[in-house]
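$ ./design --mode recover --in tokens.txt
reading tokens...
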């Protein structure tokens, strides 16, 4: 006797499930400019690498003789595959099946996908295109239920164990939105994806009407910091996910993967000598500096639209991955706002979780000041960022490019550790900048002077003479002032030392969304 009949039945059931929702719903998905879940998985993963789990899960219909008449797919597909040759778990919502509603068998499979990633110690990529729970579930169950978040313990544990990427590829709400932001890197697609706590029809019950774009566009969420990136297309989102994962280890049990590099360590870009204007009132383009000091084309910026006075991203130094923070003087002059501080906290915690050395290019005039800054609790969020930096144990190198002032400036490194730190000749630091600080410190002297303006000019000139970074170096207040053109060789040396020190052990820091 052969079991070929059972194998044939297995293949028939798989074929029924692979129909997804229905031909009409599949076509509607494509007409909306979106791929189906199975097309997405194929586009994301290396060719032929996908092994599906739960390939015959669905809602079955039998005739009176107990023979299978139909098998409707569940709204969730997951399994194992590879990206760039490295193993991953991929989990995708099927919007063609009841809008990808996260209930029934789908929830069991969601739980299994989270468990698989954490247990196998491989990255998890979520392809999210689900409307969340459905009121129809009440009728199906014949009762209501107390809300719970199944598998959330697995979601939280994965954030401290494996890289998690969420790609929002449609209109998502509720639990699907929570899954989207519970990640280390999240992407929405321009024009075809939206994200809500609750969508426009539900919000309309509060008496306010919004369009999908007004309530949940990618631009809104990128600026709010709910998601990290906006992709031009689904294919662009897949490529961004693959690139993000290329810098990270598969889990906290490993070190980040180092790649061969043909960019010379001793490459010294001439334009760095004039990258920072000698006039302190003028700004410059920090991203051009990043391109000059890291391996060519290796800088991958993340969370660009949120907390914009700090640039964050991943890069390589002689093939070794590092986490990068850099001030952007075009935004608040580099001053830290409340959202900047929150961005820094999350980014530093990710670097600590995945053993990424940190390189920080600093130009910080302090915290943003004023009524709005106070109302945003900037000092509290700033203190949290400072705490994250002091709790980090990964090797850290700071380059003081220009301003380093106040508590925010002091957050450029953990001062209690070995200070692997360099300063450019453009360095300018202190408790507060002279501009504006003189009036506060010498208020009584200025008030008593016959000519306050002349007195202010005299005091300012006297202090300017003491402002040179070389005077700080004389007292070993800064370890080394360098020619800006030597930055890359020194950073490559730092990365080499850093990777000698790294150990793939779990950190005490618990990453949270």
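writing sequence...
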């Amino acid at each position: 006797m052969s079991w070929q009949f059972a194998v044939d039945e297995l293949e028939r059931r798989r074929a029924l499930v692979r129909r997804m929702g229905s031909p009409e719903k599949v076509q509607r998905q494509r007409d909306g400019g979106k791929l189906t879940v199975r097309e997405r998985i194929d586009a994301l993963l290396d060719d032929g690498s996908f092994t599906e789990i739960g390939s015959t899960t669905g809602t079955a219909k039998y005739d009176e003789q107990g023979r299978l008449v139909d098998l409707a797919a569940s709204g969730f597909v997951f399994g194992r595959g590879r990206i760039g040759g490295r193993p991953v778990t991929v989990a995708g919502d099927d919007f063609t099946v009841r809008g990808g509603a996260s209930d029934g068998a789908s929830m069991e499979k969601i739980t299994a996908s989270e468990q698989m990633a954490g247990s196998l110690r491989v990255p998890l990529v979520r392809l999210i295109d689900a409307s969340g729970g459905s009121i129809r579930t009440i009728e199906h169950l014949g009762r209501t239920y107390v809300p719970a978040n199944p598998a959330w313990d697995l979601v939280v544990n994965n954030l401290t164990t494996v890289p998690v990427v969420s790609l929002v590829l449609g209109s998502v709400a509720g639990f699907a939105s929570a899954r989207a932001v519970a990640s280390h890197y999240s992407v929405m697609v321009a024009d075809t994806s939206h994200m809500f706590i609750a969508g426009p029809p539900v919000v309309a019950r509060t008496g306010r009407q919004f369009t999908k774009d007004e309530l949940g566009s990618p631009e809104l969420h990128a600026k709010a910091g709910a998601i990290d990136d906006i992709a031009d297309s689904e294919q662009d989102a897949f490529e961004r996910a693959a690139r993000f994962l290329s810098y990270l280890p598969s889990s906290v049990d490993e070190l980040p993967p180092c790649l061969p590099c043909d960019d010379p360590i001793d490459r010294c870009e001439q334009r760095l000598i004039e990258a920072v204007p000698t006039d302190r009132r003028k700004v410059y383009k920090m991203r051009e500096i990043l391109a000059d000091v890291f391996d060519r084309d290796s800088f991958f910026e993340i969370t660009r639209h949120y907390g914009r006075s700090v640039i964050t991203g991943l890069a390589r130094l002689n093939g070794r991955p590092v986490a990068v923070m850099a001030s952007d003087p075009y935004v608040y002059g580099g001053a830290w706002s409340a959202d900047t501080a929150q961005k820094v906290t999350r980014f530093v915690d990710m670097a600590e979780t995945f053993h990424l050395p940190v390189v920080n290019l600093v130009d910080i005039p302090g915290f943003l000041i004023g009524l709005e800054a106070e109302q945003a609790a900037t000092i509290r969020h700033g203190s949290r960022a400072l705490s994250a930096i002091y709790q980090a144990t990964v090797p850290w190198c700071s380059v003081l490019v220009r301003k380093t002032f106040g508590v925010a400036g002091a957050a450029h490194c953990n001062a209690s550790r070995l200070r692997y730190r360099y300063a450019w000749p453009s360095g300018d630091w202190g408790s507060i900048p002279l501009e504006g600080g003189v009036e506060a410190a010498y208020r009584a002297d200025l008030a008593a002077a016959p000519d306050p303006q002349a007195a202010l000019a005299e005091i300012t000139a006297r202090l300017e003479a003491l402002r040179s970074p070389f005077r700080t170096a004389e007292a070993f207040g800064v370890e080394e002032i360098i020619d800006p053109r030597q930055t890359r060789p020194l950073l490559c040396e730092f990365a080499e030392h850093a990777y000698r020190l790294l150990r793939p052990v779990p950190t005490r820091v618990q990453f949270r969304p």
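exit 0
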